[in-house]
Design brief:
The complex is a heterodimer of chains A (334) and B (328). Chain A is α/β, with parallel strands linked by helices and 334 residues long. Chain A contains 13 helices and 14 strands. In chain A, the strands form three sheets. Chain A has a seven-stranded mixed sheet, with helices on both faces. A five-stranded mixed sheet of chain A has the order 9-11-10-13-14, with helices on both faces. The longest helix of chain A is centred in the last third of the chain and has 17 residues. Chain B has one domain: Thiamin diphosphate (ThDP)-binding fold, Pyr/PP domains (Rossmann fold), CATH 3.40.50.970. In chain B, 43% of the residues lie in helices and 12% in strands. The longest helix of chain B has 26 residues. The chains are: A alpha/beta (334), B alpha/beta (328). At the A-B interface, helix 3, helix 4 and helix 5 of A face strand 2, helix 5 and helix 6 of B.
Amino acid sequence: MSVAPAKTITYREAMREAIREAMVADPRVFLMGEDVGAYGGCFGVSKGLLDEFGPERIRDTPLSESAFVGAGIGAAMGGMRPIVEVMTVNFCLLALDQIMNNAATITHMSGGQFAIPVVIRMTTGAGRQVAAQHSHSLEGWLAHIPGLKLLAPATLADARGMLAPALADPNPVLIFEHGSLYNLEGELPPDAGAVDIEQAAIRRPGADVTLIAYGGTVPTALAAADELAAGGIEAEVVDLRVLRPLDDATIIASVARTHRAVVVDEGWRSGSLAAEVSARIMEQAFYELDAPVARVCSAEVPMPYPRHLEQAALPQPTAVVGAVRSLIGAAADE
Amino acid sequence: MTSAAPIQREHGLELLRQMLRVRRFEEKCVELYSAAKIRGFMHLYIGEEAVAAGAMQALTPEDAIVATYREHGHALVRGVSAGSIMAEMYGKVEGCARGRGGSMHLFDAATRFYGGNAIVGGGLPLAVGLALADKLQGRRRVTACFFGDGAVAEGEFHECMNLAALWSLPVLFLCENNRYAMGTAIERYESETDLALKAASYEMTAWSADGMDVLAVEDAVRRAAAEVRDGGRPCFLELRTYRFRAHSMYDPDLYRSKEEIETWRQHDPIPALKARLAAAGLLSDADVEQLEESISGEINDAIAFAEAGTLEPVDELERFVYFEGVAP
């Protein structure tokens, strides 16, 4: 056990530490993407890494998402361990051909001959008044695709510890970093290391209802749980962490204990990850439920610019609290 | 431009053999498709054989190949066995991709054959990445990326030309210009139909060669591959060719005239090479007979191999979605 004291670190710094550690540990690792070098990363994640590792390993790319995401896939097939940064999930739309038609298919189409050990990181989510083209949460779309693995670090430990196992994985791993989390600050042991990338985690135990969240909605769910606790309702918060493949066991075990579930998802409700989680609970734990599964998702509207409308469109703790109260009220009325 | 260099008999026979292998293999594929042994989309290389046959001469086993959905010929000439290609099209486990890919997705790690890409332009970023891996690891290899003229209209083409040139990556871009993007003639979809000129604007050596002349193709690809290998920078070759058959087995071929096809058939690369070798006294009728016989035997063996192959058990359906084992 380390005796070094825990240090205060931000989510952004934790990601940077993870990249630095991977670069030091393995010469096959390199980072490429738009403005990852001289600019320091659009969200400051890679600041300082160009000076430390040089332009061969911290590669600024042209605005050519399809080419550099595909090049990451090709480089992975050629024996490298690329970390590709797509500035935001919105721009990954320009690379979807490579993500879907190459990264997700080549292992299978080749009959298992080729591994694709590439990591593709991207910022996701809304909340910064950047309007309809820069506020997407498309994790649910990408989680639809067999062949990909999807991670959503929502804590400092996950921001620090998910990259190493993602790079060690022989499959394409997409990491979604919610923009609202970069300034999250807290303590992390200096020797904090790799975490598992298979399981969901219980962030707060509770007996009365399960709140299922991921990425940017984990703080939302935790805030709602605080408010509910003040009213005597103990909510259990499950952080999905891994969006594909989903850890059904942790979700179902929690619902079996609490008998009620609310899924909190920043994606649009229709065809969302929340829909998938809800369906799995229905399939696997129907008789455990005391009330229908509820969902708190983003309003079905392209994200508006004004702050009050944006906040109204996003899942808020008060909406989660309301959903829980109506579930419990409905059960109590019977 | 026709290559004028003298030719050695053995080399000439080898080029002829490779083109004939592809031609006869493709002809057999038509029969097997009609007999419903092969299904799905299938695109034939008949007429374009000189490109793959010539180009592969200039590449080493360490080099990588990225190809398109019209890739039976590339795989054959590269050294993927006819049996494993045929078994792939039969959907059998003995296929070069365990039957998971079919005609459009031939893969073979042993010969560094990276597919078999059925999205036009989709293979170019992979080729750029394979070349980037070679550059970063200090390997003097060439990644040869075949694609059609239709790909030149895709954004991925332009992104990749720029990136490969900007980063000095050892990619050999081999554009097989057969004048049609499926059924749309190049004059109807390109503002600039001189594709080498277009490529040159990316600060890359680029030129055109006669893709119906296997010796001209070989010569051009040798020079281009040397520039890529020794210079550590990309090169673009436009190989002007023509497909004699329809785009795919579904294509009624209504968008071009019989006269046009007939004109191009006059430039069929196989009779052209035969005539040239014969005129130089390097090829006899007996040579041709012997070649045809051995190729026929190879293809019949390939069909027998595919027929005797096994279908993967359905309980293995979800295998290979994720890689089994540790990445190399």
